Amino acid sequence: MKFIHTADWHLGKLVHGIYMTEQQREVLLQFVNLVEEEKPDAVVIAGDLYDRSVPPTEAVELLDEILYKINVELKTPVVAISGNHDSAERLSFGTSWYRQSRLFIKGKLTNDFTPVHIEGVNFHLIPYAEPGIVRQLLQDDSVHSHHDAMKALIGEVEKHMDSSEPHVFVGHAFVLGGKTSDSERTLSVGGSGCVGSELFDPFHYTALGHLHSPDAIKHDKVKYSGSLLKYSFSEARQRKAVSIVEIDSNGSISVEERSLTPKQDMREIEGHLEELLDPGFFQAQKTDDFLKVILRDQGALIDPINKLRQVYPNVLHLERKMEQQDLRMREDYTTARDEKKSELELFEQFYNDMTTSDFTEEKRQIMVSVIEKAKREDGKK
Amino acid sequence: MKFIHTADWHLGKLVHGIYMTEQQREVLLQFVNLVEEEKPDAVVIAGDLYDRSVPPTEAVELLDEILYKINVELKTPVVAISGNHDSAERLSFGTSWYRQSRLFIKGKLTNDFTPVHIEGVNFHLIPYAEPGIVRQLLQDDSVHSHHDAMKALIGEVEKHMDSSEPHVFVGHAFVLGGKTSDSERTLSVGGSGCVGSELFDPFHYTALGHLHSPDAIKHDKVKYSGSLLKYSFSEARQRKAVSIVEIDSNGSISVEERSLTPKQDMREIEGHLEELLDPGFFQAQKTDDFLKVILRDQGALIDPINKLRQVYPNVLHLERKMEQQDLRMREDYTTARDEKKSELELFEQFYNDMTTSDFTEEKRQIMVSVIEKAKREDGKK
């Protein structure tokens, strides 16, 4: 039995003010092609189908389109759960009908722990839930942390497990050993958001969502597939893939990854403005990628973002990188203020910090007259 | 062939700050019972399933529950369209799956005018759409008004009509001859929102939604079912019902109405505060109904709303009714201002307008000292 594990589609995601819907559609169509080629027995989506509880209508239409292609056109069963970004209730709408064509969406956590059977494999669908919800649902006052909640839920799941069959757990959680990136909503305070990976020992494979990198955890059978796309610059160096999992009747597994490649990558470039605008540099690159630009220039720059966008239309973020020397100069400047330097001395310091030109005698004279004029005006008040 | 025509459920509706979800659920369960008894071949919902494009999750869960009972448990086909209150895109999600169990929801208007066939009858589902949308969809620049839009749409529908079969049109529009109430969103400016009922001549029955009264139009085969509940006090005297329509293979129809009766009615009561608070009056009434109270008292009243709510917990709106004499006194008061009466004269007039007591000499002396004190304080500034 073969299934594809994916997660964290985040449809409707805004990255630095840009809707990623078009990019998501492009990669999801690649994913549909992969399903067509691989002919898996199921597709598993481990939560965060949408980026928010009320996604934009374009995202709703995209999810409908993609699920239709996979489930109805390619007749591939789909199991999906809601993540912390989804609205459990809204994602639950219509699930009774979807089930008839083997589209199994578990939006809201309920007391029904019956697994979904596909080709001899049991899929245990546990949507994301806050510990308070789990405490109430299971009437178990000992549940305080996410770890407690998962432990209690898995206790319920185990009651429905036939040990002679293979079992796959589908969950959305921050499993210990994972690394976080900016685009994963911070859930853990003082470690209470973490779930120990040992809880998943009863399962032959655990298909996780929540962390966006397939390398977030090193474990032979508890795995994140990673997100559909890079959703923040902290993910710029992450691989983005889906996992093709083969599981035999004894529960032995083999996992193979397949990359997803959007037309536009999300990456960082770094250098002096002049270098980055040099055709010798940019002609070798995909200039329409989504970029974070780190400028090494130390002095003042006039409108660098617009200059950059002439060449790189999708600069989403610009940063300046201060060199060690520069940081020292900043300190000097701060110290200078403390020593009550004259206005002219302060300006000279500032000018030297911010530009690469000399503060000539001519410039000095101009500043002297400006400062005097400003002081006279101030005196009149 | 028999179907039940309903419309304007407005799930998630807030009436004077109160969510009607519980009342809606109660009446919808009555409706489900009616479906169970009548065993119709279809249920038709002519738009405004929800009250807004993003309904509260309770409303989403309620719609899911009710459609499940009707369509899956009672195995009754359902045809539904979106109204002006629904989000066409959000209501379209999942419709490809629903169709498999004969739940036909037409959320977004598309170029597909194929009717839904149920037991030999053709149902033509035309969701609510603004004229601009229709103009673009049909690439017909002559479409400006709702009437133009409906005419053009029906032109398309007629291309898919076999004249030997019975045809039912399902639409959501303000069809001429209808009366509006407060809770129907005003759409028409200068009559451009109205649609002439003659457009529906090609159909054996037209199941409309939008206007909330089953009496909104007097026509033998173009009909509003009316809304599920009374949704504003302007509907207090309306009947609320669903229509049971029988249609034979020649297209002959018979229509019978069935009332829906919520535990709590929405109605008006009118009288003097003292009368309304008299056990002899209120003991004969359902005091927990949703009420608009019209007070006939002419004088000042202390906290009438809270006094009323001791007896009638669900007073949603309170109005004072001015008698003819009172209106005249108001005019006198206005005139008085123009004539620059003294502060004391103005106050006396005001006191007489607002209370039923005499403005005694003692009261006059108090006001004289108050006015003098106020003037002294004003002079000090």
From TrEMBL, chains A, B:
Cited function: SbcCD cleaves DNA hairpin structures. These structures can inhibit DNA replication and are intermediates in certain DNA recombination reactions. The complex acts as a 3'->5' double strand exonuclease that can open hairpins. It also has a 5' single-strand endonuclease activity.
Superkingdom, taxonomy of origin: Bacteria
Domain Nuclease SbcCD subunit D C-terminal: 262-354
Gene Ontology biological-process entries: DNA recombination; DNA replication
Pfam families in the cross-refs: Metallophos, SbcD_C
UniProt-recorded name of the protein: Nuclease SbcCD subunit D
Name of the encoding gene: sbcD
Any one GO molecular function term: 3'-5' exonuclease activity
